[in-house]
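Reminder: ligand-aware prediction takes two inputs, not one.
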Amino acid sequence: MTYARITGIGSYLPEKVLTNKDLEKMMDTSDEWIRERTGIKRRHIAADDETTSSLGLIAARHAMEMADVTAGDLDMIIVATCTPDKVIPGTACIIQRHLGAKRCPAIDINAACSGFIYGLDQANRYLVTGGGRRALVIGAETLSRITDWHDRTTAVLFGDGAGAAVLEVSDEPGILSTHIHANGEFEDLLQTRNGVSLGFDASAGLGAFIEMNGNAVFKRAVATFDSMARETVADLDGHLEDIDWFIPHQANMRIILAAAKKLGMSMDRVIATVDEHANTSAASIPLAMDLAVRDGRIKRGDTLLIGAFGAGFTWGSAMLEF
Ligand code: UT7
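Here is what comes back for the chain with oxa(dethia)-CoA:
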């Protein structure tokens, strides 16, 4: 049987760190409130000269180094992001140029926080059906650029970063299953009110900033992780003990705890980075995966379950043997 297997993983976080204490000086919030309600302690913020493509490029290079592949080996580049450098060209094309991956197809996917899983799903289908032998899937975000720093209900939640994975066609097990979903009915609960086609209204202080009904999104996220758990249980014929590691999207520690409980997984088998990275949307899962691979927790042959939920709403999960 032919699989698409992750042969390299990499990540990058901007140098600048913004702690909860720093935020206390910027708005009416407290370290205590942020930690208790979200589990977040700090987040990384892109420097003025950094962009989503520059973050993604560094993560991609780390992943390619681990996989021992060169730019010329790549048959597809997918960048999952909701904060592209520009409207056109796509961020994937900008990264393709910097890598020197000449003529390799390159596309962006915007599925918000579920983007990396959507990207894995697409790359997996592309590779196992003979579209090519190697794909690069990047999740990269500069959410700080669409954060309203005057809105304490959202500003404390987000961070910047990038993660990337190289997938290669293999006879050895790799991606075992993917499930992706969307429901556009809840657009108003998590959105940027303005945008490209709708236009920007910067004069009224309404740029394309993230607006969220946090409480409603929270409830929906927890309920969705429940249905995700049931899909996974069905894939595994009930053998949840076969999963070595659960890597959820990193939005809120309370959501992660609830998701782990639904899956019946103890927290020592869950990779959580939300305390250090905050919510980096499409970058959060590959960032967490890279950290746990490089610190030795995740080993070759381990079975991983990844799951995400975000604006759209979009959600998805993937099970894979690393
Ligand atoms: O990645 C996409 C998915 N996103 C998510 O999954 C995020 C989901 N939502 C959440 O994580 C949580 O809903 C939040 C962390 C955003 C908020 O936590 P909450 O427990 O739902 O709090 P809340 O929105 O019900 O607000 C409780 C109180 C309010 O004050 P009152 O009305 O009770 O007086 C808020 O005004 O906390 C207040 N508040 C704050 N206080 C200090 C809201 N933000 C802050 C803040 N600092 N930063």
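The first strand starts at residue 3 and ends at 12. The two ends are 16 Å apart (CA to CA). We will return to this case in the review session.
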